[in-house]
Amino acid sequence: MIDSLIEKIQEKKNPTVAGLDPKLDYLPEEMVKKAFDEYGETFKGAAEAIFEFNKTLIDALYDIVPAVKPQSAYYEMYGIDGIECLKKTINYAKEKGLYVILDAKRGDIGATSEAYAKAYLGKTDIGEKQEPAFDADSLTVNPYLGTDGVQPFVEQCLKFGKSIFALVKTSNKSSGEIQDLISGGKPIYEHMAELVKGWGMDNFGKYGYTQVGAVVGATYPEQAEVLRRVMPHTYFLVPGYGAQGGKAEDVAKSFNGDGLGAIVNASRSIMCAYKKNGGEVGQAARDEAIRMRDDIMSAVGAV
After folding, report:
1. Per the UniProt entry, what are the Gene Ontology biological process annotations, in alphabetical order (predicted)?
2. Which one, 60, 87, 160, 275, has the greatest CB density within 10 A?
3. What is the pTM of this model?
């Protein structure tokens, strides 16, 4: 539930999430070489190197960040071995007490969305048993197919105590081609915000936030300020800080007056901090995560 994420944020006084979007170019050469020496230049070798990289990051971060956000595409491109690495990464992060937001942006017609929802948030029927496939705590969802594409995810949230973050105003440069179009006197992203608010109305947690969150990019602070007013009880996942140009004063627009309401993501700036600043992978990532926390908290205030 979103309550679990909020409690981890409060415990660590840190409203940030570390993105785990690895590819071989981001890894130290010696880490890749070690895996290739053992498994060859294969998907298996790549996946083993990436899992070692992820473990190094998680070990360095788990006591200071409340959550991690693996992006599914960076694992899928390494085939079955990459998907296995994703599952192992989710399990390892949860063992370390981290809240896991799986960034897969799933969404389809109702029956297919139900399959996705069971795969990532719920359980799959296998004979007389039910087993979790990925068992993430939360999932990003593309809601632009409408209610019947989102409702299966909401149902799994209710059934298994999970959450989702639906795309509302995304951080990419061309998001406005669709999301900023005016319909009925207001932009499409505001219409989507109203839908997201409605989907969460029967699913409030004890801190006053629903289990249906929204993705709101740090690169559009004016829109975030509007959306915060439209969705006062919706938790925001805020991409775009750091490498994409979002600043602390920008992400502060997504928070409520209680210091809650948003969690800010950074991926490359944490994963690749050792390339920019030198030092070991884990320590460089930790130093950057602490810098990011302090920077954001200076604009947000107390959690």
Report:
1. 'de novo' pyrimidine nucleobase biosynthetic process; 'de novo' UMP biosynthetic process
2. 60
3. 0.95
